[in-house]
Design brief:
740 residues; alpha/beta; seven-stranded mixed sheet; 11 strands; 65% helix; elongated; disordered N terminus
């Protein structure tokens, strides 16, 4: 070691892992790269393959091995330029970590991140795990400054089935971990123990943290942690991560963790197979028995790791051994192994958990099941949507906006500020720029604070209440039946739900989907028919001022477009739909402290990210007005806006600003309606147009980065004309039927 540097022995794992992942997808193609290239790589570049590479804190290689590595790749494999790019990505994403690392592992929605923040503070490093697009948080522990805590993605079960679960498995298999902290839900001990058994078999020092113990007691679930600890031979602790309860005891237990002395017996055929293959498995960070069980269960990460560390002939013998063992069972080996674990977890839960309060728990379970029921789930969803419609549309966009915009701004703030600025700055151009018809304050800040902020604040509050209650995952399960029609599964529904908060962030979350086909389909639907929270709040507020019928017509048209386009895209896009697997947290009363924190954080995001776009839009409108372009643009767009859509010519300005942000365009239409410039039919037509409009600039840039520039351009060329075609047809239908 040299000052400020640390030597990392990661070429065999991280560099070659990234090298292997870049070519593994071509193994099934004629002439594709495979295990033979692994041998060439080791034979030609043994000194590079075994060498430790010094890394500085920024993660940049200091010496020449990477140059030799590239030269080796150029000699061994075609397409070396692509390999260089991959290696450079490794250089910029891998940074040295402390020698002592602890991993937080657990199911989704069990409080891992809350426990992580409680034990580390706010100073965290978030980076993509090498060779993936899944973010992993790392930070030094406050009580143990020499120890790094890793917050892994939630894992439903091992073997893993998605990219984020693969990352958790890779951390367990490849990282040099000092210990593992499993975080479980104290209300669902049986499910928690199923994962505990698998972690205990790995032989790593382990502690079980039963989080949300206060919620467990509220629903009548009492766990005996001491008895559970005796059965598993590991420390079992109860915590309330959101309040820091139990953290000191957890820190004390972490100082003396030992590998668990736990062994679960499997059918004799499997035990015999494990005894035969264990001596031939490469040395790993987990026990040979656990690695063998993962291999027999056909875990993708374990198979990938073994391909890297075994000669091709040895790997083929392992495959043949597993195929021979499978002949002894009717069910797949993974199902047999998991069945044994599930049986033991059930017996252990019965002996260590006492349940009372069955009345409330039964009611809550019934409500949770009803929210997903194929019949009763839809009336429940309708009731939830109507409550949101009333709270956001009637109260937020009606009562609050009328008071803030009509009284505070129009009556008090704007006249006073215009008078003061005119007196302080005797320059008409500057006065108009600040408080004129298209001024930064009179348009930009008034739109952002008086018209949009009340609406999005009430929407953020409603969304946080649903999120903390546990209803949103049930909405995902319920709507999965609809999205199956679009060739998508539950994981694809999650970005769609998140898109109601921010389409830009939802486009990033499509990374968790397993196939490029699913990522493309979901991104297309996000760009087409999923309004972000700011836009949705304005749309609901404006339609609520018309009638419930207007809201239903808008929702029906948007849903029909989404279903038709999604179905056609699913039929044309190659590939198949994967089955749904979604985590269902229990229904509970929302904790107002959590709701307040989430709402404030989202409002803060709005003020920081959205308000500058409103100011930029106001500046552009001012410039266009001064240059005389607005009148020209209105005339240019008249055949489309006036003749086809049947809207006033002034609506052209709102659509022009919609190119910058869709919610800015919706706000312009909102203001036109408040001044009596739009009829009910025109309001519905305008809202359909702006909803199906192309997404904001930030969303387009993210889509281009995630899907490619050609794909992003193709989506824009599809979405933009489709929005006006659908809205024009709707205008004629409403005029003919007289529905409004």
């Amino acid at each position: 070691k040299t000052p400020g540097h640390q030597r990392l022995n990661f070429p065999r794992i991280s560099i070659f892992s990234c090298f292997e992942e870049s070519i593994v997808s071509r193994e099934e193609q004629p002439g594709g790269y495979g295990t033979n290239e692994q041998k060439i790589f080791r034979d030609v570049c043994p000194e590079i393959f075994r060498q430790s590479i010094p890394v500085e804190p920024g993660g940049i290689w200091l010496t020449s091995p990477h140059t030799g590595l590239r030269a080796c790749l150029k000699r061994c494999l075609p397409g070396a330029g692509r390999r260089d790019t991959i290696l450079m990505e490794v250089e910029t994403t891998i940074a040295p970590h402390p020698q002592a690392s602890l991993a937080l592992v657990g199911h989704p929605n069990v409080g891992k991140s809350a426990l992580f923040r409680c034990m580390t503070g706010q100073h965290v490093i978030v980076a993509n795990y090498p060779g993936t697009t899944v973010a992993v948080s790392r930070a030094r522990m406050q009580a143990l400054p020499d120890t790094e805590l890793i917050d892994t993605p939630g894992v439903v079960a091992l073997p893993t089935s998605s990219e984020d679960e693969h990352v958790t498995a890779r951390v367990l298999l490849e990282d040099s971990l000092q210990a593992v902290l499993q975080v479980g839900d104290a209300k669902n001990v049986r499910r928690t123990l199923l994962l505990t058994i698998q972690l205990a078999e790995m032989g790593l020092p382990l502690a079980l943290v039963l989080n949300m113990s206060d919620e467990a007691r509220q629903v009548g679930v009492e766990v005996n942690p001491r008895l559970l600890s005796d059965y598993l031979s590991i420390p079992v602790l109860e915590t309330i991560a959101t309040r820091g309860v139990g953290i000191p005891d957890l820190i004390a237990a972490m100082r003396s963790l030992e590998p668990p002395q736990f062994r679960l017996a499997y059918p004799p055929e499997i035990e015999h197979a494990l005894a035969e293959i264990a001596p031939h498995l490469p040395r790993a960070s987990i026990s040979a028995r656990a690695l063998g069980l993962l291999w027999l269960s056909e875990d993708a990460v374990a198979a990938f790791w073994l391909r890297r560390h075994l000669q091709p002939a040895d790997y083929e013998r392992l495959c043949a051994h597993r195929e021979k063992l499978q002949l002894s069972f009717i069910e797949p080996l993974g199902t047999v192994i998991q069945g044994v674990r599930l049986g033991y977890a059930s017996r252990l839960a019965r002996e260590t958990v006492q349940e009372s309060g069955a009345g409330w728990r039964a009611l809550r379970v019934a409500l949770g099941r009803g929210a997903m029921h194929p019949v009763w789930g839809w009336p429940i969803l309708a009731a939830v949507l109507y409550a949101i419609y009333w709270f956001v549309g009637v109260f937020g966009a009606g009562t609050l906006v009328d008071w803030i915009e009509g009284y505070l701004f129009e009556t008090l703030a704007n006249p006073w500020l215009a008078e003061r600025i005119a007196g302080l700055i005797p320059v008409p151009f500057v006065v108009d720029f600040l408080v004129g018809p298209y001024g930064l304050w009179t348009v930009g800040m008034t739109y952002a604070l008086a018209l949009i902020l009340p609406v999005v604040s009430t929407f953020f509050l409603a969304f946080s209440l649903l999120e903390d209650s546990g209803y949103l995952p049930r909405l995902v399960a319920l709507s999965n039946r609809v999205f199956a029609f679009l060739g998508l599964n539950g994981r694809a529904v999650l970005p769609m739900v998140l898109g109601l908060g921010c389409v830009t962030m939802a486009a990033l979350t499509t990374r968790v989907l397993e196939s490029r086909r699913e990522r493309f389909l979901v991104t297309l639907l996000l760009a087409l028919a999923v309004p972000c929270s700011a836009q949705l709040g304005v749309v609901m507020g404006l339609l609520a001022s018309i009638s419930l019928k207007a809201t239903l017509i808008w929702a029906g048209v948007v849903a029909a477009v989404l279903l038709v386009v999604g179905r056609l895209a699913a039929m044309l896009a190659p590939g198949e739909r994967t089955p749904l697997m979604v985590e269902l947290p229990p229904l509970r009363w929302p904790q107002m402290s959590n709701v307040a924190v989430k709402t404030v954080a989202r409002v803060e995001w709005y003020l920081k990210e959205v308000v500058p776009f409103f100011l930029l839009g106001a500046a552009l409108m001012f410039a266009f007005d001064r240059l005389g372009w607005l009148a020209g643009m209105e005339k240019l767009l008249q055949p489309l806006v006036v003749d086809w859509l049947g809207l006033p010519a002034q609506a052209s300005n709102a659509f022009l600003m919609g190119f910058l942000r869709r919610d800015f365009g919706a706000t312009g239409l909102f203001l036109m309606e408040s001044r009596g410039l739009l009829s009910p039919v025109q309001v519905v037509v305008a809202m359909v147009t702006v909803t199906l409009f192309i997404p904001c600039v930030a969303s387009i840039l993210v889509i281009a980065r995630e899907q490619g520039r050609k794909t992003a351009l193709g989506m824009v060329l599809l979405v933009f004309p489709l929005a006006f075609v659908v809205a024009g047809l709707l205008a004629r239908l409403l005029a003919w039927t007289g529905w409004l």
